[in-house]
Specification:
Elements: H1 2-18, H2 21-29, H3 35-41, H4 48-74, H5 78-130
Helix pairs in contact: 4-5
Length: 131
């Protein structure tokens, strides 16, 4: 993993060395957002309504899973325990699926950001060759 980071750092250094001072400042403005920034970026854009709903439902299903776990341990009959275990598994599965969707959206935003950076670099290289 450290080799990948050092490779990325060396590529970034190589890119910065070929840029002019003004382009270097612009490139620095495109820095990677923090994890919290990436999480909040999901709530901006075209799917912010869907992201907000999934965020709320994640907490709702988590609450249901906690409630089902409590009821499972308080149930006296085996049939009731099986019922509450089923509710717990279904609710916790829903939480897992919603989190996976959320992280896929974060990954999509990250890939789109990288593609835009590449487009910018390609435009810069083609503009410098035309001059």
């Amino acid at each position: 993993m450290s080799k990948a980071r050092s490779t990325n750092a060396s590529v970034d250094d190589l890119i910065r060395s070929t840029l002019t001072e003004e382009e270097g400042r612009f490139y620095d403005e495109l820095a990677e957002p923090s994890f919290l920034g990436e999480m909040l970026d999901v709530f901006r854009g075209r799917q912010k309504f869907l992201a907000s709903i999934s965020f709320v439902y994640t907490f709702v299903f988590f609450g249901v899973s906690v409630w089902a776990a409590i009821e499972f341990f308080q149930a006296g009959e085996t049939r009731s325990q099986i019922l509450w275990l089923g509710v717990f598994i279904a609710a916790f599965h829903a939480v897992s699926m919603l989190k996976m969707w959320y992280f896929m959206q974060m990954n999509r935003n990250h890939v789109v950001r990288e593609i835009k950076r590449l487009e910018l670099q390609i435009a810069h290289v083609s503009a410098s060759r035309d001059v």
